[in-house]
Amino acid sequence: MQLEDIYQPIKTDLAAVDRLLAGQLKDTRYKSILELNNYLLEGKGKRLRPALVIICAKASLKSKKLNLKTLASIASAIELIHIASLVHDDIIDQATLRHHKPAIHVKFGQDVAIAFGDYLYAVAFELISSCNNPDLLSCISQAAKALCEGELVQVCERDNLSLLKERYILIAKKKTASLFAASCQSGAMLSCKNPKVQIALKGYGLNLGIAFQIIDDYLDLVSNEANLGKNTGLDFKMGELTLPVLNLLSYSRDKGRVLEMLKNQDEKEAFLDLRERFINSFANTKTKNDALYYVRRARNALAELSESAYKKSLFGLLDYIVNYFTVKNFT
Fold this sequence. Notes:
Shape: globular
Distance between the termini: 20 Å
Number of helices: 17
Largest sheet: 2 strands, antiparallel
Mean pLDDT: 93
């Protein structure tokens, strides 16, 4: 199943988000900022997070009328927070590609990219504030804080060859899953007062986000730039121990050799050796199973929802991240 099929029930709403994003980013008198904004709009991502806001709002809708303007504003704001984090992440990770194009800091310079990321956060929170809903502001602000904490902890844990799996999962929860969870929870908050439904959808987003991060880290090790549209092998180069590597260390018969490879971050041969060892080890299967464990947890969280086309879309997103990466990239 393709994203277009999954997004079909919310096609009109996603178009409204794209229009709002374009309007917000083009509403400036400064040519330099407009150039940045236009470049950003050219590199459209999967729109997973705004789609989750919309789908969860409609999947949990009962009799309450949904404010479509607020829905589009929250979905757009969450996408802007995500994009801002990517702009900064690419600088931190020394990534040169994003969506098959030069990253912002490569195209415009590092100083501009740092300031631009800050600008995108500001635009996002201006949108959220315009909705005049303190609960939504609190939900998304907490997620943004967790996202930044996760990134900070990850950077501080670089080159820590004693990193525990539990620590990795904590980083994944904060850095990635927190915004997925907030996307789902904020959508539910817009249309449903039932706390059980809100908590269930938050759980769905959290587990989806953890699975997504595991898969992303897996692909950084085994895939290639042509498939992903961004640099691969960055985790190895930056000294970040991801779940695939932690599993390799757990199941390797020659742990000392793996540790030696991890210390040679600037050597391409060391990365290729590590990659080959991972692909041909039980760690490969274990990492897939770890991702699927969180996919199952996300799937189980949807039991609180009534049957609808939107619930099917939420199941479809789980199938999409598994099938897309399994068929095209998993070894």
